[in-house]
């Protein structure tokens, strides 16, 4: 009998040690992310929507790498990896099924271009692409639709580093924005 799950050398806990019915999943607990998720909704309500505010700023200040007709692309202020981009419609909508056909088409096209540009500028090996819609799904800014385009490399340690709660980002946001913006096709 144990006192509970035991982390292995990677920090993961074996599901066989959990109470109730064990399954085949490993758990990577990241409770520190809840502070960001919970604060995000309150912060965004108090200061306005960051994705509505960004287009009103100059590209450098707003971290915008490209402006389209219905949507724009900007760097994530809290990136998981260098080059973590967000594709957002200009219109303040919360869910993908609220997007017009034109908005959805441009979000898709900008996502494809973002992938091509990131492969060129960062030599990444793959991508995580997705939308977290709604608070329950982990959306940090649930009121404004945005798609994540996260470059990945074979040498990545993991997606949510929890060792020492530190993420090593080799480039400054301004330098990454400039490189991606300059490589974006006209």
TrEMBL record:
Location of motif Histidine triad motif in this chain is: 144-148
Q: Where is the HIT domain?
A: 50-159
**SUPFAM superfamilies attached to this UniProt entry:** HIT-like
Tell me the leader sequence span: none
Q: Which UniProt keywords apply?
A: Nucleotide-binding
Lineage, top-rank taxon, reads Bacteria
Q: Which PANTHER family match?
A: AP-4-A PHOSPHORYLASE, HIT FAMILY HYDROLASE
Record protein name field: HIT domain-containing protein
Q: Which organism is it from?
A: Microbacterium marinilacus
């Amino acid at each position: 009998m144990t006192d509970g799950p035991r982390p292995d050398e990677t920090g993961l806990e074996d599901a066989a040690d959990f109470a109730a019915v064990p399954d085949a999943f490993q758990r990577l607990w990241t409770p520190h992310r809840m502070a960001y998720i919970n604060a995000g909704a309150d912060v965004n309500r108090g200061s306005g929507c960051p994705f509505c505010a960004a287009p009103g700023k100059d590209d450098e200040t707003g971290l915008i790498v490209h402006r389209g007709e219905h949507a724009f692309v900007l760097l994530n202020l809290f990136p998981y990896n260098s080059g973590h981009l967000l594709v957002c419609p200009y219109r303040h909508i919360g869910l993908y099924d609220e997007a017009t056909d034109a908005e959805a088409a441009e979000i898709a096209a900008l996502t494809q271009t973002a992938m091509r540009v990131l492969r060129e500028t960062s030599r990444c090996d793959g991508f995580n692409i997705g939308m977290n819609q709604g608070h329950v799904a982990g959306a940090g800014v649930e009121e404004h639709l945005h798609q994540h385009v996260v470059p990945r490399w074979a040498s990545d340690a993991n997606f949510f580093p929890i060792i020492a709660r530190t993420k090593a980002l080799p480039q400054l946001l301004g330098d990454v924005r400039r490189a991606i913006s300059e490589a974006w096709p006209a």
